[in-house]
Amino acid sequence: MVAPTNVRFTEAVNDALTRFVKTTGQTKSSVINSAVEEWLRMQLHPSIRFLAVETGERRAAVIGGPQVWTIAEAWLAHDVSERSPQALAETLGLPLATIDDALNYWAENRAEIDDVIERHRSAQDEALAAWERRRAIDAA
After folding, report:
1. DSSP secondary structure code for residue 134 in this structure
2. To which H or E segment does residue 135 belong?
């Protein structure tokens, strides 16, 4: 459901927003909605920031650390009986606080992070299949 809200921007903010919208092809509404959503998440998780990646999407990352999905993927790669924030911090060579911050964000935003993990796994599977097809041609 959409909840219309009236927001008044200073002229400078409105001009910058207008330029950004023209550059990206997004609507003002979508830019503002994304910005507010990210800001709210950062208020709940002060060590998380959002960064643009090659695909144009924005992903959660720990300040000074990796994207959250990479820590979540590493967590899932460990056997359940051996999973602990301490073990993961040691394995990845990251501070325990970084691991905890990422796991806390993931716990609150499972669908977002799980979707990124799934897309990366699918891309890896396709890359492997393409490599195997190429090797088959070489062997023919």
Report:
1. H
2. helix 110-139
Provide the 10 A C-beta neighbour count for residue 6: 4
Domain count, the chain: 1
pLDDT for the residue numbered 137: 94
> What DSSP assignment string belongs to 13-71?
HHHHHHHHHHHH---HHHHHHHHHHHHHHHHHSTTEEEEE-TTS-EEEEETTS-BHHHH
Of 99, 90, 42, nearest in space to 72 by CA:
99
Q: What is the 3-state secondary structure (H, E, C) of 67-105?
A: EHHHHHHHHHHCCHHHCCHHHHHHHHCCCHHHHHHHHHH
Whether 102 maps to a domain, the answer reads: yes
Ramachandran region, residue 18 (left: φ > 0; alpha: ψ -120 to 50; beta: rest): alpha
Structural domain of 88: 68-139
Please check the confidence at residue 37 and state whether its pLDDT lies above 80.
Answer: yes
pLDDT at 46 over 90: yes
